[in-house]
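Repro:
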Amino acid sequence: MGSSIALSHFDGFHGLVGRTVHTPNEVTHLPQIIQRILGMSGEQSLRYIAEIAARERHWQRHPTGFACIACMDGRVHLPTITRTAMGLVKPYRAMGGRFEIWWPAFAKRFTNWADAVLRHYGERCCVFVTYHHSASNNRELGCAGWACDTVAARAHAEHLAADINEVYRDQVYAIVVGIETDRGILNLHGPRGTVTGAMQNGTSEDHVRMALRETFLGMPPRILEDIIPFVTGNAAYVTEHGPTPRPDDVLCHQELVIAVGHGFDYWISEANLAVAVDDADPNLDTPIATAAKIVANNLKRAGPKAEALLLASVPFERQGTPWNLAVKRAEGLGNFALECILASQPSLLDNGRLRVLIGVTSDQTKQLEPIAFA
């Protein structure tokens, strides 16, 4: 299927090259959902830049490099549920968190990240390999990427964590983490049980340290110390939201953005906003189709004036060839995603409520630079 078939559903793309956007008010001629995304990107970029010193102070005290392998589900957002700053954790997101160590693009990116941490801080890395479920209504509110089968989702997380530990050995320490999305509870699974954020409210760091030490036999002391802020932050988050799960209409999928590529994970910071599809997946059409189904269903519930968005973006390190290549990759991903949506959820294109935004994201600032929209 050629890209022209997918693009024929639009009047044409409009170029935005060189028009960096910081607030929605600067582009009032754009569709509202694109204004929202560009405004969010600008605001989060400014925040990311402003917190450079704070992140460096954190890493001086907690030098372990952290990554999180998570589902594309917009309800699973580690910085939100751990009250940690944007940029402290390297995100990797795919349908159901179904990364495999043999995926060439994922293996390259993950290795580059781990090597960079080792060079910069000389410390071992830690990766949270997550799965998620709903305690109140898992059949309808569970992980769509695993057809709400929590047993299978956890089994895959354990398999991936074991692969990472086997391959990277003394360089990376992988932990399986279950996320209960009703209340945003972290459950860190170890050889001798589980440390859960819901049980750490009001406890001291010494209590958390003891719980981790008893649960994770052999965990490197440096990593143990550096996990504590995530556990205490989650305890505070869970306490703030109370013991009762929020209503189903809040807990269910509400994402209206299909985000394809990577790099945007840092600044798409509002929980339940975007379904993220990492372009490392060699079977990219499958998660795009799943994401399109989720967004199509959400759009039906959102009302007749709501719009959905396909965002295609990849990061670039600097201007010149890296920027040029990122632009081509983002354009190609956007065309490919449109073809997948046309094949799996054509109503998203037919009703005129799906907008498209192609862009590239700066590695240094996390700013989305828009290239074209429709």
